[in-house]
């Protein structure tokens, strides 16, 4: 260590523009940087403190062999399944829990009972029907029989949407058990009752699209964290599912085309020679190849075949299985290269979705696989399918999306970009939660939030200026400044979330984008995010595993960020409260004299002096000069002998460096920042200089460590600052920008905004006609 002589330079406070009043207490600490240890589970051999699976991590496995058939007349699905359940846990199991999701639609379902209702001024009949569900529709899972491998009945108990099998013999660690369930259920009218799956019948041609989801009794998850995850399926909290291999035979009317999870095992029985040829071509094509054309599909719409066909699929290591079936389906496909492996991107859609689906759907699937693979893991499955079904819902390898243009083939930008976004989103769900298999029943954000974040990345890689709805910090501001009693923290159970879309999709996606762009930087963030995906692919991660991995792999302590953004409803609002401009006291008698006098001369004159000057008031001492003495010409601000002596001494105390620093004529600003919103965040401040240039300073959030309400920072500048601006690029979701400026900007009042219409941007596709239709009319 070297000893350095410290130079004490004194300053004169020139301008302290207060006017903004602080409370008496100027030191606050709400412990916003306290580590999360008390909130997170204690690490153990199954889940480590680094966020990785532990050395004794285990998970269960369930394989399914299913035969199912659709009765198009009754809209009924009938199935028989054989489940082989592997107990990889260290625990002895005496019972198993199985999910009967269709019981959410049973006549005694709690879903309707716990729904709050209000009567407004007008109610439509569907809403009234929805109060008690749809009593005339019997939608529950009808369990026909449950038997063991040799066909003997197994005792079972149904508790709403969950079924417990009481095993005849305890299932020991390392053992497996096989059992059979026969069942059927009445498929719901999706347009009438809503739902992730169901049927949609087209009025014009009388044909139906089936989207079959949550359709077979599925194993609940048993893990180290919860034991059995058997929270009831009420509608919002989605699914917690075990990985396994599937062998599924689907019997449908012979003129139907089936779109399904997995790989088709019997193309020779099912497809025509022409279809097989087209499919082969599509594998190496650089644009989608039509396998069933619109013309072919339209022809089939006009007749109904009486026979059936059985489509046989196999899927390895998936957590679920879904399919769609219709004679209306057009089908196209294109091979996508994912690091040397060809994945088939495919789309199935009715003619009502053309020309949009034909042009964009399969390209959007391919784009999603490419972008997501870059940021997470290589897409591991052989196919990825987008089905147009006028909704948005995800399953392994297959998802159901919307996007139907007008009858004249035109469409609004809202439909076009909504369609591309929903396809990216639902295909993206293959990664979260189908592969990085989080518990959706408990945490919606773990899949929706992470997926919406990746969706934003993919959208921005689609085209310049893509109109992303969620991701940019600015887009979450309205939600963040909303009524506190209408907001819940991100860390809220799926069924208790208020403002589902903002809470579970928008806010976590924005938070991750802020981490990436502002707090961690792309390099550290991307590495840690990919590490999380790699560690937890084909496993069951929990929130702590995500938080811990993001920190462990990046070397950034983010506990304050998780604590603020994920556990509270606080918002970001940092204010520049005060700027004090300090100038160097040169102690040079001549320089300081001039400054003192200039300051005095700048003072306003009092009114009597002004009036006296106006009348040129005659004074006695002017009329009789003999009355004047020393003090009539003395100026107390003049530099004097003592000043010069002091200055000489000061000069001799300065070394070369000190003198150079003084000569450089720095401008010093002490800026006081206040945390109004509660969330601690980095302080990003732009200094705009008198000469028109500007400079952005980034102060890490840790500046709030000792005092999380008020902090001050001194900026040493070469040139005068005329304006300080906080967060100039709007990257922190600061909910009040008025206090981001110092001096404050004169912002237009609400009244002025209203009058000028500046606050009312033209709607994206306002008017009766969409922009494509308007353009056609003009011609
Ligand atoms: Zn989603």
The set of bound ligands, ions and cofactors reads: zinc ion
Task: Determine the N-to-C terminus distance.
Answer: 81 Å
| Helical run tally | 22
Shape: elongated
What level of helicity do the residues show? 25-40%
Average the pLDDT over all residues and give the rounded result.
92
Give the radius of gyration. Answer: 35 Å
- Sequence of strands across the biggest β-sheet: 5-8-3-2-14-18-16
- Tell me about the biggest sheet? 7 strands, mixed
Summing up helix and strand content along with how strands pair, one would put the structural category as alpha+beta
Strand content: 25-35%
- Regions with pLDDT < 50 over 5+ consecutive residues? 1-7, 14-27, 757-761
Could you tell me the number of beta strands? 31
What is the topological layout?
Elements (H helix, E strand, L loop, with lengths): L10 E6 L44 E11 L4 E11 L6 E7 L10 H4 L11 H7 L10 E7 L7 E4 L2 E10 L4 E11 L3 H4 L4 E4 L6 E5 L5 E2 L1 E3 L3 E3 L14 E10 L3 E4 L2 E2 L2 H4 L2 H12 L4 E4 L1 H8 L6 E11 L4 E4 L3 E9 L2 E9 L6 H20 L7 E6 L4 E3 L2 E4 L11 H16 L1 H6 L9 H16 L16 H4 L19 H20 L2 H15 L6 H12 L4 H9 L6 E11 L4 H14 L4 H8 L5 H4 L17 H13 L2 H8 L3 E9 L7 E7 L4 E6 L10 E8 L3 E6 L14 E2 L7 H7 L14 H8 L1
Parallel strand pairs: 2-14, 21-22, 22-24
Antiparallel strand pairs: 1-25, 2-3, 3-8, 4-7, 4-11, 5-8, 6-7, 9-10, 10-19, 12-13, 14-18, 15-19, 16-18, 17-20, 20-21, 23-24, 25-26, 26-29, 27-28, 27-30, 30-31
Helix pairs in contact: 7-8, 7-10, 8-10, 10-12, 13-14
């Amino acid at each position: 260590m070297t000893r350095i002589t410290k130079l004490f330079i004194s300053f004169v406070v020139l301008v302290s523009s207060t006017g903004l009043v602080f409370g008496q207490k100027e030191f606050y600490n709400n412990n916003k940087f306290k580590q999360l240890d008390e909130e997170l589970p204690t690490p153990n051999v199954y889940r480590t403190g680094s966020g990785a699976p532990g050395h004794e991590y285990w998970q269960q496995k369930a394989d399914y062999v299913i035969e199912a058939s659709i009765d198009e007349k009754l809209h009924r699905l009938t199935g028989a399944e054989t489940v082989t359940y592997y107990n990889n846990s260290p625990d002895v199991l005496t019972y198993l829990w199985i999910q009967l999701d269709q019981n959410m639609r049973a006549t005694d379902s709690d879903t309707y009972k716990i729904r709050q209702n209000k009567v407004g001024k007008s109610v439509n009949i569907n809403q009234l029907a929805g109060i008690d569900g749809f009593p005339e529709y019997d939608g529950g899972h009808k369990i026909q029989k449950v038997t063991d491998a040799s066909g003997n009945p197994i005792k079972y108990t149904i508790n709403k949407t969950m079924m417990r099998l009481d095993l005849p013999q305890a299932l020991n660690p390392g053992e497996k058990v096989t059992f059979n369930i026969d069942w059927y259920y009445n498929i719901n009218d999706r347009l009438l009752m809503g739902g992730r799956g169901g049927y949609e019948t087209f009025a014009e041609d009388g044909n139906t699209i089936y989207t079959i989801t949550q359709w077979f009794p599925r194993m609940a998850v048993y893990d180290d964290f919860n034991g059995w995850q058997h929270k009831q399926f009420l509608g919002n909290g989605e699914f917690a599912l075990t990985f396994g291999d599937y062998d599924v035979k689907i019997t449908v009317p012979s003129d139907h085309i089936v779109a399904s999870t997995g790989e088709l095992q019997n193309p020779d029985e099912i497809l025509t020679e022409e279809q097989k040829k087209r499919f082969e071509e599509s594998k190496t094509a650089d644009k989608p190849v039509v396998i069933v054309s619109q013309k072919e599909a339209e022809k089939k719409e006009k007749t109904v075949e009486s026979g059936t066909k059985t489509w046989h699929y196999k899927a390895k290591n998936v957590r679920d299985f879904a399919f769609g079936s219709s004679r209306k389906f057009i089908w196209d496909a294109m091979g996508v290269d994912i690091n040397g492996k060809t994945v088939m991107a495919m789309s199935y859609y009715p003619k009502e979705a053309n020309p949009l689906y034909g042009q964009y759907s399969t390209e959007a699937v391919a784009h999603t696989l490419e972008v997501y693979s870059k940021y997470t893991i290589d897409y591991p499955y052989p196919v990825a399918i987008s089905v147009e079904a006028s909704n948005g819902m995800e399953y392994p390898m297959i998802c159901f999306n919307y996007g139907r243009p007008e009858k004249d083939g035109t469409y609004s930008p809202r439909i076009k970009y909504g369609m591309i976004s929903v396809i990216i989103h639902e295909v993206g769900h293959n990664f979260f939660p189908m592969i990085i298999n989080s518990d959706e029943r408990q945490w919606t954000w773990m899949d929706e939030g992470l997926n919406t974040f990746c969706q934003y990345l993919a959208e921005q890689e689609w085209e310049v200026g893509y109109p992303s709805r969620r991701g940019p910090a600015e887009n979450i501001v309205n939600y963040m400044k909303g009524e506190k009693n209408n907001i819940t923290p991100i860390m809220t159970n799926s069924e208790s979330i208020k403002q589902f879309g903002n809470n579970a999709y928008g806010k976590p996606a924005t938070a991750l984008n802020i981490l990436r762009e502002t707090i961690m930087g792309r390099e550290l963030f991307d590495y840690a995010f990919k590490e999380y995906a790699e560690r937890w692919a084909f496993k069951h991660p929990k929130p702590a595993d995500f938080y811990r991995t993001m920190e462990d792999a990046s070397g950034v302590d983010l506990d304050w960020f998780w604590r603020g953004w994920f556990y509270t409803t606080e918002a970001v609002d940092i204010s520049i409260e005060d700027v004090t401009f300090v100038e160097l006291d040169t102690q040079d008698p001549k320089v300081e004299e001039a400054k003192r006098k200039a300051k005095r001369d700048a003072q306003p004159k009092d009114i009597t002096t002004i009036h006296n000057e106006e009348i040129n008031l005659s004074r006695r001492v002017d009329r009789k000069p003999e009355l004047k003495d020393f003090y009539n010409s003395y100026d107390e601000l003049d530099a004097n002998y003592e000043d010069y002596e002091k200055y000489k001494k000061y000069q001799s105390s300065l070394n070369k460096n000190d003198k150079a620093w003084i000569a450089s004529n720095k401008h010093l600003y002490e800026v006081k920042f206040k945390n109004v919103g509660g969330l601690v965040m980095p302080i990003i401040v732009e200094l705009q200089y008198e000469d028109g240039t500007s400079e952005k300073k980034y102060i890490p959030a840790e500046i709030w460590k000792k005092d999380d309400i008020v902090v001050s920072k001194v900026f040493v500048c070469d040139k005068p600052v005329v304006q300080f601006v906080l967060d100039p690029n709007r990257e922190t979701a600061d909910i009040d920008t008025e206090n981001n400026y110092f001096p404050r900007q004169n912002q237009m009042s609400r009244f002025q905004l209203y009058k000028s219409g500046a606050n009312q941007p033209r709607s994206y596709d306002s008017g009766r006609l969409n922009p494509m239709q308007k353009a056609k009319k003009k011609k």
